[in-house]
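Researcher: We're reviewing a set of sequences before deciding which ones to prioritize for further study. For each one, I'd like a predicted 3D structure that I can look through quickly. This is Carbonic anhydrase/acetyltransferase-like protein (Isoleucine patch superfamily). If possible, include the structure in token form so it fits the rest of the review sheet.
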Amino acid sequence: MIYSFNGIVPVVHESAFVHPQATVTGNVIIGRNVYIGPGAAIRGDWGQIIIEDNCNVQENCTVHMFPGTTTRLKEMAHIGHGAIIHGATVGRNVLVGMNAVLMDRVEIGDESIIGALSFIKADEVIPPRSLVVGNPHKIIRQVSDDMLAWKTEGTRIYMQLPADLHATLQPCEPLREVPTDRQVQQGSYQTWAERKTDG
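Model: Here's the predicted structure for Carbonic anhydrase/acetyltransferase-like protein (Isoleucine patch superfamily), in token form for your review sheet.
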């Protein structure tokens, strides 16, 4: 669902994937290999939204802004399910956890990780490589090299997803029984807790 607004048409790179159940409105620019999940609302009616290359905005996220401002997700920003980005700038290779809320004029430094359910109030500036949790937010430490590598690996999976969806996503009727030879997906990516245990 892509809509022009006040004569401004969204720009979506051909390699990006915007799910048919997402909504993109107005002054929105979406870069290469971006994934926009179902239920996401990317609403550029009162200002501009720029989503740079290799970002992902997952299911049921909201991206909006205070009138006359720009919301920017820099390259490889990873926005978890249900998060709200309202007028913030999210730095390069940042992870915003599920259901986190970033308010107006927030600036998240590159390579930071914002924990699930965190709340960052307007005008806060988060330094690069900060690990942030809580409501209200609190910086608890620096993001380690290992944690950043783990985050980057997860984002690379999402960078591949648009191409896979363009190639294979099809509407279909459901099966009525489970086939005996049903494929089971194999995954090599671990949760952070699993990775720490193995390491």
